[in-house]
Write a structure and sequence with these properties.
Rossmann fold, alpha/beta, nucleotide-binding
């Protein structure tokens, strides 16, 4: 199984995402923003960072980079696509997901281990979770507030397309505590927290069992592999 990770100018977490793919049991494939070649991958990850320096709007320039023509086409054909933080912003700017991401309501960059509730386990990236499961994933962003008009929010909520919701604290002012959403088909998922930073013991969030032992993020990547195997 080959999962591509796209690198844009300003990507910070592409290597971490590649490592997460490898830990999950798939082959990571480095993809370059300026190419039109997906190299035959089975799924795609758009990683976190500050693509193109966040000029204009976060993700706005990356959304029209050459590789995104291929990513949009693949996503519309059903390929699993995960957008993490800046990757989520890119998915929104590319109109693969609705809504928008704006400056955190408190005006500050935030970095913390964030508890989430899994709301939707039917997507390609969440089928390994159980409904209502509470997980802890690192969060780091300055413009992570999810917004949308009332009609879009009602549709996302009504169709069960809110995939993750913040617990304990809303870290950025997102409407309805929304931390991540999916498209109608369930193959495209975007979220602000970083699952690739919670995939390996010794490097993840603290848990009651031990410091830095949290690996809840690994399930994102094993879920995608399971979804692809079952097709």
């Amino acid at each position: 199984m080959r999962i591509g990770v796209v690198t844009f100018p300003g990507s910070l977490d592409d290597r971490d995402a590649q490592r997460a793919v490898r830990l999950a049991g798939a082959e990571p494939v480095a993809l370059w923003h300026g190419d039109h070649d997906l190299q035959g991958v089975d799924a795609i990850v758009l990683p976190g960072g500050f693509s193109y320096g966040d000029y204009l709007r976060c993700g706005a320039i990356a959304a029209v980079s050459p590789i995104m023509t291929e990513v949009v086409s693949a996503a519309n054909s059903g390929m699993p696509v995960l957008g993490i933080c800046n990757g989520f912003q890119i998915l929104v700017e590319a109109h693969l997901l609705p809504g928008g991401l704006i400056r955190n309501d408190h005006g500050d960059f935030i970095c913390r281990d964030q508890r989430l509730r899994v709301e939707n386990t039917s997507t390609d990236w969440t089928n390994g979770f159980t409904a209502g499961q509470e997980i802890t994933i690192p969060l780091k962003n300055g413009e992570g507030g999810f917004i949308a008009d009332a009609e879009t929010i009602a549709r996302l909520e009504g169709e069960g397309r809110v995939v993750f919701r913040y617990l304990d604290v809303n870290p950025n002012g997102s409407i309805d505590d929304i931390a991540g959403i999916t498209n109608e088909r369930g193959n495209v998922v975007g979220l602000m927290p970083h699952p690739e930073h919670a995939t390996e013991p010794g490097f993840g969030p603290d848990t009651p069992a031990a410091m830095r032992s949290g690996v809840d993020g690994l399930t994102f990547f094993t879920s995608a592999i399971s979804a692809l195997v079952s097709r």
